[in-house]
Amino acid sequence: MLINRFLTISRQLTAKITKPNNTFRLAALSVSHASTTTKAKDLVDELDTPVKFTSSAAREWKAKTSRVGYESVRLWYEPYVIVVSLTIFMVYFGILREENDVDEELKKSLYSRIEGLEEHQLRVSLKYNQEHSLETSQILERLAEIEREKSHSK
């Protein structure tokens, strides 16, 4: 409503904002016809008058909407649709689907993929445990196993 009034005024006049005595007023610059001038003055006067709060759209505005936005209304059956969809997907993915080569690759450990990673990790853990007086027997055993595996493979 207010936007329509403003658009009508902006089509009919060329306007500028002036600031006499610290009040802003809309002033008509140049209008060719006298009838347009009176219409423009009437519209300017209408804009200068305050808008009644009780008759404006601002009366229905909720302050909460300014902070959090509009609440979206969800359908009553939406949670049931989501639960059923997720259940069907999990049954398919976990039970019905056959394993493929990607699943086999994912079962391999990271140490079997990167040569020397386990040995390096064990040496770092051994150094840390020795510096902090923690037990190192299992780390030393695994390092010995890795050394034996290296010597057998060569």
Automatic annotation (TrEMBL):
InterPro entries: UQCC4. This is Uncharacterized protein.
